[in-house]
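sorry for the late reply, my laptop died twice this morning and i had to redo everyting from scratch. anyway the thing you sent over, i finally got around to it. pasting the sequence first so we're on the same page, its 228 residues, then the predicted structure underneath. double check i copied it right bc i was rushing
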Amino acid sequence: MNKKVLVVVTNVSKYSNVNRATGLWLGEAVHFVEVMENNGFEVTYVSPLGGYTPIDPHSIEPEMMSDLDWKFYTNRKFMNALGTTVPAKDINYNDYSIIYYTGGHGVIWDFPNDKKLQEIAIGIWNNGGIVSAVCHGLAGLLNIKDSSGEYLIKDKKVTGFSDSEEKEVQLDKLVPYLTEDELVKRGAKYSKTDNWGEYAVADGRLVTGQNPASGAAVAREILKVLQK
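ok and here's the structure:
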């Protein structure tokens, strides 16, 4: 396998039904990318439309930012990459061995029904690669189907942003669906830890993380899978 990773980010900057900003939850990219780059992987940032990915302003409030987040946020090369993401239509899945869907509430709207992203993910999967996601990024996995027409996540162990976490931040009434519920509806074997705890699950080449604290854990699980 090559050491090239696709990190998928959103193009959605605002909730569709209320005047509230959203976008990429910064830490979910940063903590995953830090682990992967430190292990020699090359990262490409892709979005459904390409170009700019908005950053959820709540994810860069001081109490949300670690030293690592600040290191990336003040890195011009990284921020320029987020401002010039590759459009999904320009990606050849044969060039990558791993795809990782980041979260932030924006992805709820643009990830699930993007046919090109689905094509990329199942292409990587069929090539023996790894499909991964964190938090709301699991929205990107909801409608991916395998060659038999079944949902990729059916009967597989997964985690993702929990209903209890959505309710704790009082956004459960503002989103069109709850991530945990939709995973279960598609036959996934969902599990979780306490709200906001670090938690990642690997089921073969499918690796998922629960919440913003779990990006690095997803990366570490991927590295374990690659060592098998």
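The chain has a mean pLDDT of 97.
thats about all i looked at so far, will dig more tmrw
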